[in-house]
């Protein structure tokens, strides 16, 4: 399932991802892939340690070639953000200073609102081992940080980019609970259909002496019906259950369906 | 910042992560790290291709040793889920059938509610290249799928586990917009403080003949004050700006502060 599919719309808009001093090409590639997964396309690198282009980046990008091909490289962070109207800095640790600190959902909503207003935004991600310097954070408008396990707080840059890209994608959805595909549509069966199944089952059981002692029969029927009414069964489900009842009712182990002598009613 | 920090609470509860037929130890390790980042700890493997234990898994886990040490290995998926009350299957593609399909936020809320009710839950993740088989999905109660770029939909298992772990963490937060640290607290300055700054600046500018032509002075002052009132300045910010005004006002390029002959008022 990797790679692009030309029959499906390729999402490629939204905030610019800016990696400051990234070290491993592989991480840059995984960042590109994460961006592509969630519809971002514009990647900028400030002083990548091992230079650019990078074979290991392209390989790790798993065919997110449109992101890799579009990478821009800058010597200075100031130049990498020069055309942007609004910039977030990601950081895992508290900084002295007065910059507002946001969680990822609030940050994504802000980026989406600014995008819709025609502004260009970016998100800064720091070096693999120690993040952004204070003077780099100072160039951003606001800080975004992730809710993490306090005792195990380190996210690698590809993971951090993945989470922001994912929140960006969600921020564009009218309904966050929407899914790209759904269960097969089922409407609840009519009651007549349901009661028909109850009758079928109860008759088959009654014929086998299931309801004993006799004075317990009403309670046993209540319990049985409760199993099948706890959630609304669809007509399809009732069809399946009636097939089961029929199979149990009509055939025996010794005379199964399709065998000579099997009782086909 | 990698690794655990014994002074901070180590979160380690919540759904079991179950990898079916994982191939690369490195992926298992990245899964363990993602789980640790967001407070999950219980990892189960069904038929890991390269066996267990795995040095490459431990290495890629970046010190999520508590997850790696607790890994349980099973021959059959049925056994891996036997003690669980509720199971999600992750899948990127539509399946025939009637299982409810959820997005990650709804799924995480469901998992959290069941966790609070004392139920044990799990989430199934499939093989690196082609996910879960239909008969494996059939063992789950519901399906969870991610909102992705339709033209670039493949998530690797570590990314998928990261997203579900992250949503699990968020589902436990009282306020999703809360952040682990905040900006330094600032209260708006008093108006007296603000007007003092206006006076300071305007006097310094007036002394330099800034307000010309004279009839434009009121409008120019309005514009100047608008710059500083658009958002409520804190006392700290006013202190900073007054320092700037003083520096510009008292010293010149030829006679800067601290030089012989510098005008110290």
UniProtKB/TrEMBL annotation, chains A, B:
An annotated GO cellular component: cytosol
GO molecular function: RNA binding; tRNA (cytidine(32)-2'-O)-methyltransferase activity; tRNA (cytidine(32)/uridine(32)-2'-O)-methyltransferase activity
Subcellular location: Cytoplasm
Coiled-coil spans in chain: none
GO terms for biological process, alphabetical: tRNA nucleoside ribose methylation
Keywords: Cytoplasm, Methyltransferase, S-adenosyl-L-methionine, Transferase, tRNA processing
Cross-referenced SUPFAM superfamilies: alpha/beta knot
Keyword Nucleotide-binding among record annotations: no
Entry-linked InterPro entries: Alpha/beta_knot_MTases, RNA_MeTrfase_TrmJ/LasT, SpoU_MeTrfase, tRNA_m1G_MTases_N
Reactions it catalyzes: uridine(32) in tRNA + S-adenosyl-L-methionine = 2'-O-methyluridine(32) in tRNA + S-adenosyl-L-homocysteine + H(+); cytidine(32) in tRNA + S-adenosyl-L-methionine = 2'-O-methylcytidine(32) in tRNA + S-adenosyl-L-homocysteine + H(+)
Enzyme class: transferase
Residues annotated as domain tRNA/rRNA methyltransferase SpoU type: 16-166
EC number: 2.1.1.200
Oligomeric and partner information: Homodimer.
NCBIfam families listed in its UniProt record: rRNA_methyl_1 (TIGR00050)
Role according to the record: Catalyzes the formation of 2'O-methylated cytidine (Cm32) or 2'O-methylated uridine (Um32) at position 32 in tRNA.
Family designation: Belongs to the class IV-like SAM-binding methyltransferase superfamily. RNA methyltransferase TrmH family.
Name assigned to this protein: tRNA (cytidine/uridine-2'-O-)-methyltransferase TrmJ
